[in-house]
């Protein structure tokens, strides 16, 4: 037994010695490759953003599997800053507002991408005031052409990484029981983390050619069956798209001013309602009669502005920034001419209610619309519209308010929309006009749009101002609009016309027609698609309000009121339960803004991106090649994030499986659920924090009320004492 233990110890010592020798040999060969001046893929100066978000110029040398960063081009021993290990990195193009071409190297697991040795054996890099980030590196080339060269060179270096591993880990191991002629070559790569060995033969020129062919060639059968190739870095998967059906034919209201006479049977209800409110009161908490309701949700109503979204694609293709904001203004004005049939108000969305639809463009692209009611008091709706192939995203958070002014009502939409042109990095900030309904008590009920609207791009400096004018009491016309386009303080163009008719612009090239919704133009409205009612969840607008809509269609006001009251009572019961509401597809940012959690602000890549698809409110991009080494299940559950994210991922699936138009038993694919225990603990923790915050708010409210009551009591007592004192002084002076 002792002899066996002794042999085991000797064997372990031998293994440790072989391990140290192998590790030393690998380090020496790595340093040899670093020092070899002939092994260079590309070398040039790049701007690199540091941890302090400031840009500095560095000289970068790209070698197979390595990116070496120096302070200066002379690249002396003391100028070395760091060495990036490319076999740990992923490469993506990064959108940027500044000039040049921006790209990013990052570790998909947010770990370090840096090696611990320099080309001359340095252990510590040169000191910099703006240190570089640990898990990613954001670089900027001086021009688009130079940036594309760097992207191609880095892709080549990635391909060389596998070949470099084979050549650098070649090891001759002698068999103790054989002679010199029976020697064999083995290749091992030692890793400190897990100690795995990868074995291979000596790499010849033929092997190297095969290595690159395996990376570049994609077998046809992989495209057909969607399986993942063992010799390719491309990950493929099938992504099931939602079952879309074309929306019913649109119903347009009459041309001209929007007016309506109130029926005699409904006048008593209006007078009863008016007795409960006072001028200046917010009507968001007032229960309105069903006969004034338009049979659809406010979330769906907001989608009326995007039937001409193809006009944004024209702005994306426009090189002149002045003409670009003219086309953006044209798109904005194209959303107002459709009017409801009569003076109707859409349903107030229920907290947690959602709506989705899409429009198909003539160029084959698709615009997706996602909306959710994220708050009830105050009523806040968040929306996200995306068409990466056409080059734009739109996001917004809208707070709906209603004000009563005696003989008129105003529906005010507080909030701004952000229209982003992805390829140009431009964002246009837009606010919305308010709707004014007058003649409630005296005269004919008439609806108009009013208020000042601004469309502004900070990057270009251009700004459009539109004034929606209300008809004056004497003279004038309905639905008039005036505006201008300015660059700084310089007025470049003027706009005038009717927002539901012809609008003209007078600019440097003279006066011309900007927008005119003729019958031929109306025919070009993009076809809208929605989800079949049977496939909708219980919280989607059409299904949630279906009983109210059916009753209104049947002109059964009592049934409509009953169903509407039931929905509102359920909402009040949930609010009183004390459980905070959690949004589904939007997250709250600083302030009152919300953002779509699956937003993707990358420009469209014609060579890689195939199509945008939607499943269960998740809009993703199907691409040819992967930017992440995660497995198919991880890819399906990953989110496309905005530019602010430091770990962008991409769905990769060359084949799209479409559902039958009217499926019966199909269910949408759900993203993989993380560990249930962790998720449950996080949920309980968030719930406890929210309850604590709610309790603190209630306690603060009680404290404020107590202070106010105390101050009021002190004021009353002081007033009484002062009155008594004045009374006695008056009597004394009279005597």
Automatic annotation (TrEMBL):
Residue span of region Disordered: 174-199, 623-650
Task: Extract one GO molecular function annotation from the record.
Answer: lipid binding
Q: Name one Pfam family in it.
A: Oxysterol_BP
Kindly list the residue ranges recorded as spanning the membrane.
Answer: 711-730
Family to which this protein belongs = Belongs to the OSBP family.
Write the protein's name. Answer: PH domain-containing protein
Q: Which GO terms describe its biological process?
A: lipid transport
Q: What is the native source organism of this protein?
A: Caenorhabditis briggsae
The Polar residues compositionally biased stretches are: 635-644
Swiss-Prot/TrEMBL keywords: Coiled coil, Lipid transport, Lipid-binding, Membrane, Transmembrane, Transmembrane helix, Transport
Report the superkingdom from the record. Eukaryota
- Residues in PH domain copies: 39-159
Q: Where does the record place a coiled coil?
A: 2-36
Check the record and name the PANTHER family matching this protein: OXYSTEROL-BINDING PROTEIN, OXYSTEROL-BINDING PROTEIN-RELATED
């Amino acid at each position: 037994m002792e002899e066996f233990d002794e042999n085991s110890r000797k064997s372990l010592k031998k293994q440790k010695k072989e391990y140290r020798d192998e590790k030393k040999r690998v380090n020496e060969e790595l340093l040899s490759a670093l020092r070899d001046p002939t092994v260079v893929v590309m070398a040039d100066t790049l701007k690199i953003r540091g941890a302090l978000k400031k840009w500095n110029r560095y000289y970068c040398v790209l070698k197979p599997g390595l990116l070496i960063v120096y302070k200066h081009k002379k690249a002396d021993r003391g100028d070395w800053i760091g060495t990036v290990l490319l076999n740990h990195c992923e490469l993506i193009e990064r959108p940027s507002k500044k000039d040049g071409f921006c790209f990013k190297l990052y570790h998909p697991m947010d770990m370090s991408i840096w090696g611990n040795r320099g080309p001359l054996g340095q252990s510590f890099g040169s000191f910099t005031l703006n240190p570089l980030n640990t898990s990613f590196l954001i670089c900027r080339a001086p021009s688009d052409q130079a940036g594309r060269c760097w992207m191609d060179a880095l892709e080549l270096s990635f391909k060389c990484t596998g070949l470099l591993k084979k050549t650098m880990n070649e090891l001759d191991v002698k068999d103790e029981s054989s002679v010199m002629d029976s020697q064999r070559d083995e290749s091992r790569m030692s890793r400190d983390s897990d100690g795995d060995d990868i074995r291979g033969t000596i790499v010849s020129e033929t092997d190297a050619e095969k290595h690159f062919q395996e990376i570049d060639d994609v077998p046809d059968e992989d495209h057909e069956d969607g399986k993942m190739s063992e010799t390719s870095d491309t990950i493929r998967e099938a992504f099931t798209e939602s079952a879309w059906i074309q929306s019913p034919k649109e119903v347009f209201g009459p041309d001209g001013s929007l007016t309506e006479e109130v029926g005699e049977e409904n006048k008593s209800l209006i007078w009863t309602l008016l007795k409960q409110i006072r001028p200046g009161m917010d009507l968001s908490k007032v229960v309105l009669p069903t006969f004034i309701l338009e049979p659809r949700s406010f979330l769906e109503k907001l989608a009326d502005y995007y039937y001409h979204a193809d006009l944004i694609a024209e702005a994306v293709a426009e090189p002149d920034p002045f003409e670009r904001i003219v086309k953006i203004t044209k798109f904005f004005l194209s959303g107002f001419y459709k009017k409801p049939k009569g003076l109707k108000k859409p349903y107030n969305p229920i907290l947690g209610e959602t709506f989705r639809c899409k429009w198909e463009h003539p160029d084959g692209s698709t615009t997706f619309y996602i909306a959710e009611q994220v708050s009830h008091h105050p009523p806040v709706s968040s929306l996200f519209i995306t068409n990466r192939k056409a080059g734009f995203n739109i996001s917004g958070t809208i707070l709906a308010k209603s004000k009563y002014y005696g003989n008129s009502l105003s529906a005010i939409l507080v909030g701004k929309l952000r229209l982003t042109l992805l390829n140009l990095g431009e964002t246009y900030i837009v606010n919305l006009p308010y709707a004014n309904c007058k003649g409630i008590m005296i005269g004919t009920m008439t609806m108009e749009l009013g208020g000042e609207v601004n469309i502004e791009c900070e990057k270009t400096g251009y700004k459009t101002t539109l004034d929606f004018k209300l008809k004056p009491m004497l003279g004038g016309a309905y639905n008039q609009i005036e505006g201008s386009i300015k660059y700084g303080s310089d007025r470049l163009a003027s706009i005038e016309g009717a927002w539901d008719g012809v609008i003209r612009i007078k600019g440097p090239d003279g006066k011309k027609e900007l927008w005119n919704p003729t019958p031929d133009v109306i025919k070009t409205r993009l076809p809208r698609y929605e989800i079949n009612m049977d496939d909708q969840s219980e919280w989607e607008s059409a299904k949630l309000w279906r009983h109210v809509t059916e009753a209104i269609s049947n002109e059964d006001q009592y049934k409509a009121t009953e169903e509407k009251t039931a929905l509102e009572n359920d909402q009040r019961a949930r609010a009183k339960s004390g459980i905070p509401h959690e949004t589904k597809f939007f997250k709250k940012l600083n302030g009152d803004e919300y953002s779509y959690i699956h937003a993707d602000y990358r420009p469209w890549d014609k060579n890689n991106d195939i199509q945008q698809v939607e499943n269960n409110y998740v809009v993703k991009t199907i691409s040819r090649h992967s930017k992440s080494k995660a497995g198919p299940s991880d890819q399906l559950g990953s989110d496309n994030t905005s530019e602010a994210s430091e770990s962008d991922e991409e769905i990769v699936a060359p084949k799209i499986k479409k559902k039958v138009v009217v499926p019966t038993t199909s269910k949408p694919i759900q993203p993989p659920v993380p560990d249930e225990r962790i998720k449950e603990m996080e949920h309980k923790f968030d719930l406890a924090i929210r309850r604590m915050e709610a309790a603190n708010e209630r306690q603060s409210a009680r404290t404020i009320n107590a202070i106010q009551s105390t101050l009021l009591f002190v004021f009353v007592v002081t007033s009484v004492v002062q009155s008594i004192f004045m009374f006695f002084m008056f009597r004394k002076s009279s005597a």
